[in-house]
Amino acid sequence: MRLRRLLNRKHGEAKRPRSARQPLSGLKCRAAVFWQRSVSARWLRILLFVMLLVSCKTTIPPPGGPAPVKGPPGVEEETPAPPLFPDEGAALRRQQAAAALTERGRRQMAEGRVDPAMRLFEQALSLAPRYGPGYYYLAEAWLGKDNVSQARAFHRQAALYLEDSASWAARLNRQRRRIDRLADDIP
User: Fold this and answer.
1) Taking the CB of the first residue and of the last residue of the chain, which one, N or C, has fewer CB atoms within 10 A?
2) Greatest distance between any 2 Cα atoms in the chain
3) pLDDT for 62-115, tens place per residue?
4) pTM over 0.90
5) Which domains does the chain have, with CATH numbers?
């Protein structure tokens, strides 16, 4: 009906006054029923969606992890000691990842690729900021680029974190002497 009116208007037919139009009571009833059905269907879909979300709700485990499974009666189980620090395991994993990245960086430097090695050392230090070997090898990389000021800054950090290690003392002394020599050679 509506389409017919639109088509007639396009073809030049003048708009008829409301009194000359067909009664709209049947059209109004159909539109009202359609509106009610579409509104109720929309609310029904929203309700179903909310019910789906509520049914998929995840449960939050209690603090300390899930409840342990008990064995047969009369058999006592040994419970592991809680870690001294809450993130002790995470810190160890970060330290191990930093060591692996530093080793990859050492291999890159051995191949003569200083810039990728520096990125690996920086990643290692972002994981474990107190990892002394990362600072040592980053100072080595800056030495390879003849940047004395950066090499000296990272050498100081390495010396700070590796001062208690006897195995690193000789390396740190050699590195310090190389930095000093390079500083004397640069005008």
Assistant:
1) C
2) 107
3) 666 556 555 555 555 555 555 555 567 788 888 889 999 999 999 999 999 999
4) no
5) 90-185 (1.25.40.10)
